[in-house]
Structures are given as structure tokens and as C-alpha cells.
Amino acid sequence: MPVVLRTLLRNKKWAVTLLDSAAEVTICRQSLKDHLDATATSDYIAVETADGRVLPPDRVYDLTIQIEGDVERIISVIFWDELTSDILLAERDWPPEHVRKLPPGEDVILPSFFDLVLEADKKAYAAEWALAQAPALYRNPVGWDKDSPCHVIPVRSTPHLQPQYPVKHEAKAPVTEILSQLEYQGVIEPCTSAMNNPLFPVAKPDHSYRIVVDYRHLNSHTRTYAIQNSHSTALINNIVRKKNKTTLDISNGFFCQNLAHDSRDPSAFSFGSQKRFCRLPQGYKNSPGLFSARVTSILHELDSDALSYVDDIYLTDNALDIHLARVDRIILGFADFGYKFNFKKSKIAFLSVLFLGYELSNEGKSLAPHFLEKCAQLQPPNTLKKLQSLLGFFNFGRTYIPDYAERIRPLYELIQPNFSSRRWTIEHTHILRDIQRDMLEARHLYTRDKTNLVVRIIAGAYGFTYVTFNEGDTVPIAYKSHLYSNAEKPFAPTEKILTAVQMAVTKERPLAQGKRNIVVSPVPALEAVTKASVPNAKALHPRWIQWATSLTATDVDYVFDPRLQTQEFLQYEQEYPAPLHILPLDSYNTIIYTDGSAQPVVGTKHQYSAAGAAVCGIMEDGVFHPHNTYIQTLGDCTAQLAELKALLLALKHSETGTQTLIVCDSYYCVQSYNEYLNHWKLNGFRDSKGNTIKHKILWGRVADLKDKLPSVHVVHTLGHQRVGIHVAGNALADEAAKTSVAMASVAAVTRSGTRLDNEILVAVKASAADKTLPKGYPTNYTYHISAQNVAYATIPGVGDRVIPNEGQRLELITAAHEGVASAHAGIQATITILQQRYWWPGLCRRTKQYVLCCDICQQIKGSNIKRPLQTSLLVSDKPLQCVYLDHCGPLQPDGAYKYILVAVDSCSRFLWVWPQRSADARTVIKDLLIFIGTYAVAAFHSDQGPALAFKAFRDTMRTMGVELHYSSPYHPEGNSVVERRNRDLKQSLTARVLRSGRSWVHHLYGVQRALNNLPRRSLGGKVSI
What we know:
Layout: E1 3-4, E2 6-10, E3 15-18, E4 24-28, H1 33-37, E5 47-48, E6 54-55, E7 60-68, E8 71-81, E9 86-92, H2 113-118, H3 126-132, E10 145-150, H4 169-184, E11 188-190, E12 199-203, E13 209-213, H5 216-220, H6 232-237, E14 244-249, H7 253-256, E15 257-259, E16 269-271, E17 273-277, H8 287-302, E18 307-309, E19 312-317, H9 320-336, E20 347-350, E21 353-355, E22 358-361, E23 364-367, H10 369-376, H11 384-396, H12 404-413, H13 426-440, E24 453-459, E25 463-470, E26 478-483, H14 493-512, E27 517-521, H15 541-551, E28 556-560, H16 567-571, E29 590-600, E30 608-620, E31 623-635, H17 639-652, E32 660-664, H18 667-682, H19 696-708, E33 712-716, H20 727-752, H21 758-769, E34 782-785, E35 791-795, E36 799-802, H22 806-818, H23 827-835, H24 843-852, H25 855-860, E37 883-888, E38 899-905, E39 911-916, H26 921-934, E40 939-942, H27 951-959, E41 963-966, H28 976-996, H29 1000-1012, E42 1015-1016, E43 1022-1023
Helix pairs in contact: 12-13, 14-15, 17-19, 18-19, 22-23, 23-24, 28-29
């Protein structure tokens, strides 16, 4: 008896042909026909179609029959139908008597699938109606992607055997049936494993069951793969909507993914007998990511414009024939890989579809009907768990509600652990009903198009809302709302607007898709706002730096809209404080330069010796003439405290009613004095977070003196400069502070020994009596002992140098080489540091031996192989005529930082560093624009690095009037000035990290200061600064 088939759906490219109403059909590509012609089976089988045609035997291929006793079962049969011009694979039981021929009246011959969809007044429902005529397509089959087995269970350690949970008696039979079906489909198999995971059935509303395996213990012993699913919010916000839309659901997606044999045992579970999964198990933490990665890779080969989220696929087109061709290509392509689709959940060529919980139509994106039905049935919760479920439900539709965060805040307060009362009141019910009503009445939202992105900022008392639009549209894309943190609540209205702008620009930049962001705010000229222009500004300096980054972004435009100004904003005092007016230098009666210094005491690890200095004088014709110097020795304290003490010392010596200018090289002291001090005094010397500021007592004294001395101005200058009007005065203050610290350090060294060595005493006596000196003591030196019992060697042309005892010399070498101010310098640099204060016989020899034997230096420093330069270097005789640039890295990631931008002045060899997240032109431009605005750089020299040779970088530098010079490719010697500094920088950072164990970013600026203070042979033994 022939096998009877009937054709239900047919178009120009594919057809669905069924054996009967319960048959299952898989469609194969037409391209297989040529291959199958060469392998035609000789076994006879008659195939009769619904219209009475009998296919000849030469059109039947690959007949597979399994014999079980007297019963024959057809495993598969592939045949060629000339009418449909396609190859079909049919699976059906055999023998023939089990197959009945359908009467002609039962045949269902439908029109072409194309004709159905194009039929008038049925465009939105034709596809669903056509598929409804084929019950077999509503099955939930299991595919098999056997070509890509997954080794997906990397267990860190063997988990314990987990016992089986008790199962209700009424659930045992349904669970047994489900497991039998899964075993028949090849999803699970019997096993004997040392691992076991508990199984428990979950009842469905229709009284059926689904099985769940508890893999929580296995997941806790499993490494997490880096594969992540697509972000659903970003996916739905950037989705494209055209006329015809299709969503395809992959049937039993996880169970299509084959599991490697060596990864099956950890998935074992027990129910009667022990079984394990042969396919990717549900509940395993890496399953979603692995399955999504596989679907994405297949979809990229078939149709790169289609979108996927786990097992859902979305595609859209305006032309119906193109759209159906894409659907056909995806269905057949996934079938080739072994996947099947659940057509009951799929929607083909619809005007509106459901995707990721939203309804997508030509009008826009709206909440799904089932979501709105459930929203209409919400009632006030009576338990904490129901309240949490309610808040989670509302959170899904928060983008449709303006001011959602501020309106829902009272409900979230009820679930806070430290909230005093969790009682539901009538006010909470009103909030629930208001949000419920707004969600039910919410309009559809647009999705992102290719125009610019408009962001409107609306700030309130407790939070803010920003609304995103496509440029030219009035329907928003989404409403985003947030509450202010405790630190942000006291901010001025303008600062609250800047907080909202910072978050909006940062979070919505991916949504802009490379287009411009147009930010509409209630602040006029927002891009020009500075901290000095905001009255009673309360935000700290680091936050203003973050805001400045957003305000100066090149892809953002700011627009003023007075309609967005709230009542709080209008009532706020808009009086801008007068900027600090600096007089000409010769107009000041007194100019005071201050400096503080702190250095570690030799022989100690955490003890410092510090001092503050103030040099008073006048400025005449651009020349500083000092007349008084004030020094205060502070003992063990930090350099920051020493700078503050020096400022306080200068204020104490300022005269009331006299125009006085205080010049300080500490930005912390100057900024605090001019910007923060009044705010600190009003708040009891507490910052915006309520924490007591450092050095509270000293800042209180400074605040009192500031009120008494209104004619005193405090300005900042960069320290250790070679050119500038304040160089001479700052150098005098620096020298005075360091001299005081040196005196304190010598006293500390002297106090550490009870008496001088005999050798030193003999040398002093021999020098005084003009007798023979001990070995190693030069005869042209004179030796004496001070009243403080300190031995000195007077070197002609140099001056006095301390002679330490033998037991102190190793500690001095260690401090000079490994101390905070040294950064594991080389041999000559370490010797120069010691010779600035000390001398003893054999100093150079012992220092060289110590540096060569340093373990850390041997680990991080390479051999010094000198090679002749192949290109000439740009030599400058003045600072900032040429600055060398290069990137150092990538380094071990520290948070978000992986690179260091290094700049070295060709004349002074002064070093600047900036930690960077990426070595791209945009990041370099941002850092160098501040650098160029501070220093008058004439030219930059760099290698052919991508960021430094990028067109945007070259155009920016040309606009700023800075020349660019480049080394020849593959010739790092042309940039050797900065390359040598790169090596020193990495070696010093590595040494600090090995010693302290902290991150390299923490040590970066300390190493910069240390390297800039090292004597350099190329500068005649002087430091870079």
C-alpha cells in the first residue's frame, strides 16, 4: 500500500506535505537533489500524493527501514515531488496496514501561501489562519545540533551528591511520562554518575507538570563563561520597525544543543533511576549564554540584519516578497543545522508582533496586551513578597511613566530594612492606582531611527526625569527617571541639572548610534557653567571634573528651554559671585611665597620630617626682592599638612589693610581657600557627605584669618618651573623648606647613634693636628664635629657633608635607592642623592654594589644595550619647544585603566603622565587639550602610533597651533627620549607594586614626582625640574 501524502501549504519556494493529520515533515533544500540522484535506492516504495499522482521509484531516495521482529518501521524516506519542485523528508511508522488512504473529501488543499497573505482584508491574519490548518505544525518538536557539541560544564571542584526532594504522589505519573518522552527524544539517557542534582515537579495552571532540576549547587561549583546575552533594553530601544514583521520561536532551544560526553555526568539527576542530560540542560547558569552565542553565529551566516534574543528571532521588511524570502532562508537554514521552530508561538508577516514583552506595530512600541490585562487586575498587596512582586511588575513599564522614580518612592520605602513602619496606608493605595491608571492609558513609544537623539531634562526635588526623542518627533522613545542620592540632595538646582545631564549623556550615548545628542535643559548656556558661576555650590571638585567632561563632549549640543524651569529653580538665587580680581604684581605691597616639604627619616619606614616656609618680599620690574623668610619645623607629618601650615604661616605675617598676594604651589590649599572654605565654615567644616574634612582645626584658623584679611589674595602657581614670573620666589620658598627638612633629618640621624665611630674621631683629630688621615679620607678635605655631635667633611667647592656612622650607612643607601623619593633609581642617580647631604669613604663603591645586588632591580630591569641612533633627535634649548609623546602599555588592567599617556619635555626632561582607559585619539585629545591650555607647547613629537597619527588628532593640534613631528616607521630610536622614560616608569611602578601590593594607578603620580626629582646625567647631574 502506498504512503499517502497531502500538500497543505505551497508557494514558489517551499511546501508542507503531510502523511496525515498527525504526520511530521521536515523540509530539505532543493540543492540536495543532484547529490541524491547518484544515490537513488533500489528498494520499491510507492508514494501517492493527495491529487492521485503516484511518484515513480526513481524519485525515492535514502529509504531507511528498521526491523523489530515482524514489524518494520520506516525511519526516514526522502523523495522528489516535481509539482512542488522540492525534496521532502517524511517520518512515519510502517507496515503499510497502519497507513490509511484518506478519502478525497478529507483532503485539505489550500491556496498558495503568497496568495493567502496578499488576500484582501486578511493581511494581518492570513499567515496565522493558514498555519492553523496544519495541526502538525503546532507540535513542539526537539531539534538536534549534533555538529557542535558543547563542553559546557567546567567544574572547579567535584560537587557533593545532592539527595532527591520528596515528590507528591499525584505528580509521579506525569513526571514519569515526561521523562519517558524526553528519553525517547534523545534529551536524557540512563547513567551511573557520582554526582546527583535534585528534581522537583512544578504544577502548571492547566494541572499539568513541568520538571525542574535544581542546579544551584552545581552552579556554585562552576566557572562562569564570559558569554553574555544581549541586553534586552538596548535591543528593544534600537529595534527597527517596518511594515511586515515576523517573530520565530526556536522549539526547545536548549535541548537542540548537543552536550559532549565528558560534560554529561555533572547534569545527572535521579527519579526512580538515575539519568543525565544529553543536551544543554535548563537551569545551568551557562546555558543561556552558550545557546545565544550559537544562535547568533548561525543567524549571522543566514541573515545578519535579523535580531535574536535567546530563542526568539525578529525580522522586518516593507516588501512582502523580500520578507517571506528571508523567513524561508532562516527556517531552512536553521533546519540544516538541526533546529526546529515552534510555529504556534511564531508570527509570520504580521503588521504587529510581540517581542521581548512589547507590542511592535507601525505606530510604535507599546505594552503588550497581556501585560495590560494583568495590570488592570492588580490589587493592594497584603504581604511583603506580594509588594516586591508588584514593584517588579511596575518596573517593567517604568519607561512609559513620567517621574516614575519619584512617584514610586513611597512604595519602595516600605521594603527598606531600616524603615520604621511597613504599614500600607490609603496614600499608598492612591499611588498604586495612579501608576496603574497611567500604565493602562500609556501611549505607544517610538523606537530609535537614524536622526539625532533629543534628551529633555526635568529635575525635581527628590529626583529627575529625562525623556528621549528622535529629532523632529513629538512621541518619546522612553521616560527615564532616577532619585538623587543622599550626597546629591543638598546640591544647588544647577548642580542637580548637571547630575541629570551626566547620567543622560553617559547612558544614552549608545542609543544615539553615532548621531549627535541634543540635550534640552532649563539652564541657559549650560556648556559654559563652572563652579565659580554657581552660587553656594556644594559638589566636590571630582564631580565637577566629571561634569566638565560631559559639558565639553564633542558629540553633544545643549539647548535652553525656559519651559523646563521648575518653581524651585526659579526661586533659587541667581547671583553669580564676583571672580577673584588679581591686581598687577607691582600693586601689591607684599608678596609671600609658601612651600611645604616632607621627607622620610633615614632608618624608619613610616616616620617623616616636614617643614613649612614663607618668603616675604616685593616685586619690582618683574624681579622678586625678598626681605624676610619664616620657617616652621613640623616634625612627623605629611607634605599636604606642611603646605597648609605654610599658608597659615603666611596669613599670620600678613598685615591688615595691606594689599598682599600669597603665591602657593599647592592646588589643594588654593582651591580650598578660594572655593570651599566658606561652604565648609557654614556646614561646620563637613563636606557634602557629612564627613569631617581633614585638618579641621587648621582650616578653622585659616577661615578666621580670611575674614580679618579681606585684602589678601591667594593664587596658585606650578612648582619647580624654569620659566615664569613666580619662579624665583617659589624656588626660594622651596629651598627654605627643604633646608629645614634636611636639618631635621640630620638631627634624627645624629640622635639614632649614641656616639661617633672611632675612625671618624681619629680622622677629625688628625685633620685638626695636620697628621696622617685614616685610609679613604682625602687630605684636601677638612673634618670637624659640630656642637650637636655631628661629624662633617668640608669638601672644597661643595661645602659641608655629614659623615654618618658605619651602622647608619646601609640604611642611608637603602633609603636613597628604595625610599619614597627614589623609585629604585640607577647607580649614578642613587650616588648623587647621597652626595647631596652625606659623604663617607667608599660611598660610590658600596652604593654600586648595593644597586647591582637589588633583587627587585634584577627582576624588572633589562640589560642596557646601547645602539647608535639612526635618526637625529629634535633638540631644544628652551622648555616646551618640543614635547615627546608615547603610549605606555597595555599594562595589567587596574579598574578601567590599561594605558599611560607619557609626555617628556626635550629640554628639561620633565615628565607628565595620564592614566587612560583606551589608547584612542579621542582620549588623547581630551587629556592634551587641558595640557595645551596650561602650557604653551610649541610642538609635539611622537611615533606612528594609531592614536597619535589619527586625522582627528592632527586636525585638533593644527587648530590649536601646535606643530606635529613623527619618527620614521619601525624606528623607535627616533622617539628615544620618551621611550627611555617609559622604561623607567614601568620599572619604578613595578617596584612599587611588588613592595606594597597596591594597584599601579595608586603609585602613578608618586612615581612621576620621584622621577622628576631624580638627578640626570644628561642635565649635568641636576634634576628635571
